[in-house]
Known about the structure:
mainly alpha, 55 residues, 78% helix
Amino acid sequence: MRGTFWPVVLIVLGGLLLLSNLGILPLGELKALVATWWPLILILIGVTSLLKKGR
């Protein structure tokens, strides 16, 4: 289980975006939300990583 969380998240996210681009799954609002808040997501990932290294 160790080290499998982020790869699974990326695979699921990629699958959702692919389905959206193919017109199978409408994710217009979700795309707009991610497009607006992606810097905060990166900051949270970095802070979480730093806090885990401090243990």
